[in-house]
TrEMBL record:
InterPro entries: GP_PDE_dom, PLC-like_Pdiesterase_TIM-brl. GO terms for molecular function: phosphoric diester hydrolase activity. The lineage of its organism: Bacteria, Pseudomonadati, Bacteroidota, Cytophagia, Cytophagales. This is Glycerophosphodiester phosphodiesterase. SUPFAM superfamilies: PLC-like phosphodiesterases. Pfam families: GDPD. It comes from the Bacteria. One of its GO terms (biological process) is lipid metabolic process.
Length: 301
């Protein structure tokens, strides 16, 4: 009888750890890359129209120290057209270095008119890489005009120590430039800073411990190994969704760390993540995710 009671208790505990969430943080990856050009004002405003909780984006630094919203610190051959109308090629993209250009020059490149090779249904729009401040201003104004809840921001610092002073400044300056812009717009209570680079997160923790941090993961190290490498417990653990397991969800929640995987675009995968107990999902297709959570009876955070 005692063994039976113990077995039932264990089953209850395991099940309780993985009950699907009541609310979910719907994060629009680079705005809504599946349908609008990534990391553009148009993509972020469309994501807000769809109804995301959080705008996920990446930032780099220009030669004149502007914080630019861009996934790469150069112009990608997949999306960019030079001011002279020529497409950026794969062979030359690494030389199209944003850290060696003033923002006035960066803004002249078109990053929305080309057909995206991996997102054929993405709307084609002539557009540019915006400044972080511009994105925040437009998003806040949109929320005010529509009388909707203001968005959260999940901002990735795109840094690799081997590229200091080549594609970006050293970590102290990089982090401070981003924090200065965040402080200007007073969005700390609706913000997380994410990075694959532990040095960037360590610097954020050092100079602005009140800022919530997100450890991005694309390796096969254990949860414990990744936390040890970081040196502190982040607010969010954000792995490639293929690494999410029920065991990982348990470990995160035992430490009061949120689990928010990326980038989940298939509806079946979205359902699986929800049933594993994740706290949010980063997706290129937030409308798909909204449909899934409605079917699951879950509310957006």
């Amino acid at each position: 009888m005692r063994k039976l009671q113990l077995s039932l208790l264990l089953i209850f505990i395991v099940t309780a750890c993985h009950i699907k969430p009541q609310t979910l943080d719907v994060q629009g990856h680079r705005g809504c890359r599946g349908i609008y050009p990534e990391n553009t004002n148009e993509a972020f405003l469309k994501a807000l129209e769809i109804g995301v909780t959080t705008l996920e984006m990446d930032v780099v630094i220009s030669k004149d120290k502007k914080v630019v919203v861009s996934h790469e610190p150069y112009f990608s051959h997949e999306i960019a057209i030079k001011p002279d109308g020529q497409k950026v090629t794969k062979e030359e993209e690494l030389q199209q270095n944003l850290y060696q250009m003033n923002y006035e020059e960066i803004k002249k490149y078109d990053v929305g008119s080309r057909k995206h090779p991996r997102f054929p249904n993405q709307k084609k729009i002539k557009t540019y890489k915006p400044l972080l401040g511009e994105v925040i201003e437009k998003a806040e104004a949109y929320a005010d005009s529509k009388e909707i809840k203001k968005p959260f921001y999940n901002i990735e610092i795109k840094r690799g120590p081997q590229y200091d002073n080549i594609y970006h400044p050293e970590v102290e300056e990089f982090v401070q430039l981003v924090l200065d812009k965040i402080n200007q717009y007073k969005i700390k209570d609706r913000l997380t800073i994410q990075s694959f680079d532990v040095g960037a997160l360590q610097e954020v923790k050092k100079v602005a411990p009140e800022i919530q941090t997100v450890l991005l993961i694309e390796n096969e190290n254990s949860f414990e190994e990744n936390l040890e490498l970081l040196g502190f417990e982040p607010n969010v653990y954000s792995p490639d969704f293929k690494y999410v397991t029920s065991d990982l969800a348990t470990k995160c929640h035992q430490k009061n760390i949120k689990l928010i995987p990326w980038t989940v675009n298939d509806e079946d995968d979205m359902q699986e993540m929800i049933h594993l107990g994740v706290d949010g999902i980063i997706t290129d297709f937030p409308l798909r995710l909204n449909n899934v959570i409605e079917e699951e009876g879950i509310k957006r955070l």
